Structures are given as C-alpha cells and as structure tokens.
Amino acid sequence: MNMVKLFGKAMRINMSAQDRRTQDIGAKLFIGNLDPTIDDKLLYDTFGTFGAMVQMPHCARDQVSGNARGFAFVSYASFETADAAIQAMDGQYLANKQINVQYAFKKDAKGERHGSAAERLLAAQAQKNDRSL
Q: Which uninterrupted H or E stretch holds 31?
C-alpha cells in the first residue's frame, strides 16, 4: 500500500509507535545532493531494489515552502543490504545529479553514524535471539 495514490496524494504506511523504540539501531542511510524533482516514490523504486526497507524513504522538505531540501533518508532491515546500496549508489547520477550515499548520523549521539561495529553486533545478537529490529 505504500506510495499508492489516494485522492491524488501518495499514501505512506509507517510502523506503530511501539516499534519506533528500536529504530535508532539500524541501517539508516543518508542520501545527499538530490535533485529537487526527486520524491519518496522514486527513492523507494530506486533503493528498494537492494532489499527490504524498515520504513519508507523520506525526502526532507522545508516546512514553510514545501520545497525539497536536497537530501533524504532510507532505512534498511539489514546492514548487508545497506552496504550493497552504498557500494552501488554512492557517486551515481539520479535525475542528472551525482548523489552521495552514506550511513546517517544518529540523532542523539554527536558525530556517531549508524553502521558502527557495536551497532552491527547488537543487530546480530538481536537476530540470533529471534528479535526483529
């Protein structure tokens, strides 16, 4: 149902609030230098080919004007999938602009990015214990 248009607007389906507690641990990517014409649907179609996403891609927009800010975030279910997306897409052209793809900075930790060795270890232990992140 994600990105299906209803009354001319694309629907976005998100996880429940209870599931959001574990989202700080995960393979979250930052996609920079995006063309203003890029939307969530194009990012979903482009980056969805690498594997399962935890949540829909999100293009950052100015709250007042609604104009694109030139970057977006994509969250994958596994670090292997995120690594494949970084390797394949970093430096590639999307809508005639060269994009950069890297692990996003964490919200609460200054200067620390997603994808660290400790975070990968936590994800592996959670998967081993049959808990999903």
A: strand 27-32
